Amino acid sequence: MSPQTRRAKAQSPESAAIGETALATATPPLVLALDVGSSSVRAVVFDRWGRAVREARARRPHTLRTASDGTVEADPHALLAAVASCLDEVLARVREGRQTIAAVGMCTLVSNVLGVDREGHPLTPMYTYADTRPAREVETLRRHFDEREVHRRTGCRFHTSYLPARFLWLRRTQPDLVRRVARWVSFGEFLELQLFGETAVTYSVASWTGLLDRHRLCWDEALLEFLGVPPDQLSPLTDVGRPRQGLRPSYARRWPELKEVPWFPAVGDGAAANVGSGCVTLHRVALTIGTTSALRAVVTGAVPEVPWGLWCYRVDARRSLPGGALSEGGNVLAWIRRTLQLPDEATLMEALAARPPDAHGLTVLPFWAGERSPGWHEHARAVICGLSLAHTPLDLLQAGLEAVTYRLATVFDLLRPLLPAEVHVIAGGGGLHHVPVWPQMLADVLGLPVAVSAVTETSARGVALLALEALGELGDLTEAPLYLGPTYEPDPARHARYQEARKRQERLYNVLMEGSGLFV
Fold first, then answer.
1. What pTM does this model have?
2. Do residues 426 and 484 make contact, with C-beta atoms less than 8 angstroms apart?
3. Cis peptide before 29 (omega within 30 of 0)
4. Mean of the per-residue pLDDT values for the chain?
5. Residue 311: strand, helix, or coil
6. How far is CA 109 from each of CA 38, 127, 307, 442, 465, rounded to the nearest angstrom?
7. What is the pLDDT of residue 370?
8. pLDDT in tens, 63-102
9. Chain-centre distance of CA 229, in angstroms?
10. Complete DSSP assignment for 182-218
11. Segments making up each domain of the chain, as ranges
């Protein structure tokens, strides 16, 4: 029976509304999705309807190494071990349930990069998007290139989170090390290299490097030449639907059920999150708040002109992903709670829910980790303006959360011209689970209804749905069931109050960022 015939005969079960299922009732084929994030590695099995299998999931926490000079990096060997441990646990549970895995897929935090030798052994740590040490090189790039023209080609600004600045910094600070590197790879490529002995990089992951010509879907020759990076030091480009099969002997013995299973190459975690939450058309915008936060839409084809404050990545060869990301999200909540030693979370959330909007009168620029969208001032730092002896820790917490929400609204305003008149905002991410008032705050600030995704593992689910589409089980991603929780309607009076507070934040931003050049 062809995949097309199976699609015509299959019907989504009523229980799909919950978004989860037991292993015994999962509808094959089953896809094992790996999600390598900034704080943990997760493995989750999904069935044909994109339902998470409750018994078949594993998580391993990991820690990024940070330092005061801007270092944020990971140990690729430790990440590899975490992935392998997750696979061991999940496959053991699948065996117990007498089920089989039809495919494996993966997403990773992006951008990241490490250098390997000719045998694929790491010569460097894995540098992450959050590492700000190449700040000096950003200015070098701006002196040598027309940044707006590069932005049109690649969809990316010059910033420490992208590879042009990273490669210049490595050449300046570690030239001997750079000469020893045979190839530069992301973690997804590194994992594939260990498992199969060869690797490629998807258009999705490549688009997060700042080195992909998003129109021609090839490496940007002018940038590579300036950076002194030969094209053969980067992996060949591929699409997410082109799997690899045939594990190396040691891994085939460890996971015999995966020996010849299709293994789809890694995609960017942001692209996967859009797919997993059901935001695969311009009528649905994904708003994700985790440790950091982002707002993204999926566009079929290329975006002719990307708004200057935003980026434009790729889901795959057919789909673009315009949007913007903040370096802040749930990390602001965590920092304020830790620093001010606030009470337990339940008490805190109850107190927050009882407060009117902008009850504190403070104006905050929430750049605890520098600014990405829309101004891309990597040197920026947080500002709290208007403090008095009367202010309380709860005031600071509310002001911090509202400030992040205002910046997300600014990103949405920039994205709005690319969207149709009727658009639905679907919010997800761990930050919303920790802060129950945040969805209503988002609705009130945006002045739009905000639906909360019922999917707890949006990125992992997106990986599974992309694999199911490639296998022919889904004719298109729009066929996947949409799992939604409650929808929050905006309150006009609160929206008006927030609009005034947003204007106050914008005035402070313009003075400190654009006017005096304090952080530039």
1. 0.91
2. yes
3. yes
4. 93
5. strand
6. 6, 11, 24, 25, 18
7. 84
8. 999 998 999 999 999 999 999 999 999 999 999 999 999 9
9. 26
10. SEEE-HHHHHHHHHHS---EEHHHHHTTT-EETTTTE
11. 17-268, 278-454+490-520
45, containing H or E segment? strand 40-46
Question: How many CA atoms within 13 Å lie on the side-chain side of 273?
Answer: 28
Give CA–CA dist 178/500, Å, rounded.
Answer: 51
**How many helical (H) and strand (E) elements, i.e. helices and strands, does the chain have?**
18, 25
Q: Do domains 17-268 and 278-454+490-520 have the same CATH topology?
A: yes
Structural tokens at position 131: 């590492």
pLDDT band for position 18 (cuts 50, 70, 90): low
pLDDT tens-digit series, residues 342-370: 878 888 889 999 999 999 999 999 998 88
Q: Residue 269 carries which side chain, given as an amino acid letter? A: D
For residues 184-197, give the mean pLDDT.
98
Q: What gap in Å lies between CA 111 and CA 408, rounded to an integer?
A: 21
Partners of 103 in the beta sheet? 31
Q: Are 449 and 424 in contact (CB under 8 A)?
A: yes
Superfamily holding 278-454+490-520 = ATPase, nucleotide binding domain (3.30.420.40)
Could you name the CATH architecture of 17-268?
A: 2-Layer Sandwich (3.30)
pLDDT above 90 covers a percentage of the chain that reads 86
- pLDDT of 418-427, one tens digit each? 999 999 999 9
